[in-house]
Specification:
Layout (H helix, E strand, L loop, with lengths): L11 H26 L13 H17 L7 H32 L14 H6 L13 H19 L2 H22 L5 H6 L4 H16 L6 H24 L4 H4 L2 H25 L6 H32 L5 H32 L12
Amino acid sequence: MGQEVKKTKRIVSIQVCRGLAALLVVLAHLDNIETKYCSTHLMRLFQHGVMGVDLFFVISGIVISVVTVGKFGSVQNAFTFLHHRIARIYPIYWIYTTIVLAAFLYNPMWINAGSGHKVDILQSYLLIPTHVSFLVMQGWTLSYEVYFYLIFFLLMLLFPARAAGWVLAAWGVAIVSLNLWLGESHNPLVGLATDPLVLEFLAGCVIFQIYRRARLHRIAGILLISVAVLWITGVIVYNMHVHGGDVKLIENHPWLRSSLYGTFASFLLLGAMEMERSGFVRYFHFLEAIGDWSYSIYLSHLMVLELVGRIMFRFARNWHYSILLIDAVCIPTALLVGYLSYVFLEKPLMALLYKSSKPKLHQPA
């Protein structure tokens, strides 16, 4: 009981789950590629890959809890934390946003079809929610990340560590209460602040405290992973049986999404962490490396899938199962581009912008 996580320790299972989250999102968007270019529906099951975002959110709560241990009540620590988080999220995101902006200026019909090919350039760069999709469409999740960072910055600045848990609990109660009172807000900023998906971040904070303060039984990790697998299997089977596999009915309802996908992510992450701590599992370095590349994969994969998918379909358009060839090329290419982006963009930017030593879990959620 009361076991502390050493400041130099890296929880490898978090990185592996981060890589899994990125791959799930890639698979979900490959289903979109199949819908766009092919007549088959072989990737329909992978629509549930959108749960990778929920996995990222729970991871974010864990990571931020780890990197802020022992740093509350200090103005310097609070501003260092905020600087590191902003420097970690924005610069590489701005690079990809600029690439998409250049494509938009060349041909607006290539970008944001779901928003009528409209963009809000300034708010895309600042990650301020609007009714229009960002230039980098998946950037909407980064708005939540920035929101999380600002909340923790204020916590570190204004409260001692012993009070932080109570404030986070009050934040969760406020989100539930505001949703019950106001319902879903049509104001993008209010909608972000009160979105039930924020509860997934808070779940990550709780998971870290469980991991930090309690040593669970050695088989707890196996049991938690088993529960996670059974849970998500039940969700998928029920969705297929009742809704014909239409994941939009989960994806577009925040309470349902956070309840189903957020619960899965929470069980999976705590189970993976406990299995690692108990010594039941040792991960291949490649799986950990994908976690390192995950942010670059996440930012670049839509461009990669669209470009490679369009090219590959030209060669395989007469083959009924062309999506299999498209997948076989798109997935390794997305990993390769993510790796190159990490090595030649992310790491140099981190080295340039981080003025102090890296946090023990130094990847963004």
